[in-house]
Each structure stands twice: as C-alpha cells, then as structure tokens.
C-alpha cells in the first residue's frame, strides 16, 4: 500500500481552482440579478445553491483532499457560497418588496366607487306600516295578539254574530278549506279567515277583562285582483273591553291613530252603519290629507284623492255587540267594549298615493325600494 499523498496540491483539482470558484460565484450573482420575479429567482436558487449546483459539487471535492489542503480550499468555497447566499437574500428581499408594492396598486380598493352596485334590500311597505300601527297602539298600552289564518267557522262567523244565512258565509265571499270527512268544502267548518276579528273572540276566551289587544294580520276573500282589490290582503283590528267604555273612548282612540299617521291637525268623523259584531256601528272617515276639505264645492280646486268630498273612508268600527261578549263568556252587563278594523293596503294607498294595489303584491323591487329600510 502506498503512503498518503501529503504533497497533493488542491489547486490541481479543476473545480477548486480560485478562478473556477470565482466564476461559479459570479455566474450565481449574475443569475440572481437577472431574475425578474420570485419564480425566476427560485429557479436560479435551485441552479446555484441546490445539491447539484457547481459550488455544492465543488464543496464535495474538499472531502477527498488531504488534511493540510482542506483549509485553503474550504475557505475559498465557503467565501464564495457565503457571497452567493447573501446576494440571494438581498435579491429576494428586493423582489418581495416590488411584489408587495405592485399588489397594493393592482388590488387597491377605490373607495370613491359607487357602494350600491348590488342594490340594498328594503322591507315591504305593508310590513313597515303594520309595525308602525302596532307601535302606536302598544305605546297606548295595547297588546299585540295573533291567531291562525286557517280558522274554525265558529270563530270567524258564529262567535261574531254572523247569522247562518249571512252572505259573507257563501262561497263567493269565503275560501272554505276542504276537510277529509266533508263531502263539500263548505261543510268542513274550516275557512281561511275573512277578517282578523276571530282573534277578538280568541282574546276574550283566553284573557280575563280588561282586554286591550291590537291584531295585525293577513286575511283572505274571494275577490278578483285588480287596482283596488286583492284576494289576499292585510287588516289591523283593535279590541278594548273594560268597564265603562263608550263611543267617546273609541273616537279618541281613532283620532290618536290618525294624527300619529297623518299629522296632528287631522280630524275624523263617524257615520252610522251596520256590522253584525258591533252595536252601534259606524264607518270612520278622516279629513282628506291632500286638500284638507278645501276642494268641497270648489270647482277651481278639484281633489282626485277624496273626489272633492273632503273626507276619506278608512274602515268600520263600533261598540262590541253584547251577543259577541256573551258568546265569549264576558258579562255584557258589567263590561262594554269597542272595536275597529282597517285595511292596511287601503291605508298605504292613502298615505303614499299608491294608485294600483297590484303593485303591492307583484314583488317588483322598483315599487318596494323607494320606501327604503326602516328599523
């Protein structure tokens, strides 16, 4: 076996010559400087610092050198690799800074652009008006009551003093729900409620007087859909039962509601009428909010809203019929009460000059959006 070659000169190894080390370093530095983005820099990093890069291969050659020759070769290679890594880190920092600056420009949000490119939603005006009406009466101490829309005929008619032959019971006015045991729908005893008044009977059966409830809700009648009628519409009903209530209490309550909705200077009037569930009964009118009565007898200033009559009809009202109180287990000798019911659609038409009721039910956002969102 021959003795170790202690006189081996590492300069004789081609890849460890000083000029070769410098060339490898300079090529790496040039590749890093030429990288235009982080992807190109990553490729240059693999080519000049990876396991198969020239400097990595040269570093492997050092292990085969005799001990006294390793120090000088290792120093040259280490300095070159250090310079390469330093240049790589510096170039990467530059490219990352350029990328971040470009992203801030390209992905910037222009806060001056219109914010409503996706139109905001809006509550339906019927919902808003029902809530506002309920709030008016809640502020007066009333309780909001609810009841089923599919109702027993007894609550919808009998408890409210509708006689068996009353026209409202017929198929031309009422939607009857066909029951499983009924041969015909009108024999089922179940209807889609034609008014919110059944909740009055339910409230009297569930509560001990005094009772003060307001009932907003959806009702159904067999009407054709046109500019002033719809088979599905909304009502708000009020019932007050207590000792000593009179028509004066009813009139004061109606005045407060109208003034809260249309202005403090609005006035109302009552005209005699007939309803099975109230006695005496009346139709309530309010002063025309457009002409304030100035169109009456004045051909120079006609008013389309009230037909130059000076008054607008709102709905029916009256003192609760003693028969209704008796049917619901309330002593009419001790208690009296008043009630009224108005159509929400009709009130919306008055309040916002809506001319066609079909606009309220067709779901066109162009009708709903002008009313906005109210909380």
Give your account of this protein's structure.
The chain has a 7-stranded mixed sheet with strand order 1-4-5-9-8-7-6, with helices on both faces. Strands 2-3 form a two-stranded antiparallel sheet. β6 (268-275) and β7 (278-287) form a beta hairpin. With 375 residues, the chain is of the alpha+beta class. It has helices at 18-34, 38-49, 54-62, 67-106, 125-138, 153-156, 198-206, 247-262, 322-327, 344-352, 358-361, 365-368, and strands at 143-144, 150-152, 190-192, 211-220, 232-242, 268-275, 278-287, 311-320, 336-343. The chain starts with 17 loop residues before the first helix and ends in a 7-residue tail after the last helix. The longest helix is centred in the first third of the chain and has 40 residues, at 67-106.
Summary?
The chain has 12 helices and 9 strands.
Which helices and strands occur, and which strands form pairs?
Layout: H1 18-34, H2 38-49, H3 54-62, H4 67-106, H5 125-138, E1 143-144, E2 150-152, H6 153-156, E3 190-192, H7 198-206, E4 211-220, E5 232-242, H8 247-262, E6 268-275, E7 278-287, E8 311-320, H9 322-327, E9 336-343, H10 344-352, H11 358-361, H12 365-368
Parallel strand pairs: 1-4
Antiparallel strand pairs: 2-3, 4-5, 5-9, 6-7, 7-8, 8-9
Helix pairs in contact: 1-2, 1-4, 2-4, 3-4
């Amino acid at each position: 076996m021959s003795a170790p070659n202690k006189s081996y000169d590492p300069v004789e190894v081609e890849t460890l010559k000083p000029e070769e080390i410098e060339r490898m370093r300079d090529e790496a530095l040039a590749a890093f400087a030429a990288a235009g983005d982080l992807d190109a820099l990553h490729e240059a990093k693999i080519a000049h610092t990876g396991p198969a890069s020239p400097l990595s291969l040269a570093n492997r050659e050092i292990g085969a050198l005799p001990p006294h020759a390793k120090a000088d070769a290792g120093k040259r290679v280490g300095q070159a690799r250090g310079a390469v890594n330093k240049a790589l880190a510096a170039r990467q920092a530059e490219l990352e800074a350029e990328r971040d600056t470009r992203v801030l420009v390209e992905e910037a949000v222009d806060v001056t652009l219109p914010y409503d490119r996706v139109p905001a939603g809006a509550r339906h005006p019927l919902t808003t008006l029902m809530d506002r009406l309920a709030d008016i009466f809640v502020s007066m101490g009333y309780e909001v009551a609810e009841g089923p829309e599919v109702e027993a005929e007894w609550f919808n008619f009998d408890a409210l003093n509708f006689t068996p032959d009353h026209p409202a019971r017929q198929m031309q006015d009422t939607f009857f729900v066909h029951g499983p045991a009924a041969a015909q729908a009108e024999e089922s005893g179940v209807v889609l409620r034609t008014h919110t008044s059944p909740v009055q009977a339910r409230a009297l059966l569930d509560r001990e007087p005094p009772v003060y409830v307001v009932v907003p809700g959806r009702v159904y009648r067999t009407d054709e859909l046109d500019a002033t009628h719809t088979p599905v519409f909304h009502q708000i009903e009020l019932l007050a039962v207590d000792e000593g209530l009179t028509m004066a209490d009813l009139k004061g309550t109606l005045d407060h509601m109208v003034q809260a909705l249309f202005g403090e200077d609005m006035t109302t009037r009552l005209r005699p009428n007939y309803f099975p569930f109230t006695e005496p009964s009346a139709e309530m009118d309010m002063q025309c909010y457009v002409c304030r009565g100035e169109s009456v007898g004045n051909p120079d200033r006609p008013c389309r809203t009230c037909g130059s009559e000076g008054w607008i009809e709102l709905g029916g009202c009256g003192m609760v019929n003693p028969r209704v109180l008796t049917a619901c287990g309330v002593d009419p000798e001790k208690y009296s009460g008043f009630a009224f019911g108005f159509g929400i659609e009709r009130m919306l038409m008055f309040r916002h000059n809506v001319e066609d009721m079909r606009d309220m039910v067709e779901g066109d956002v162009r009708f709903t959006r002008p009313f906005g969102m109210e909380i």
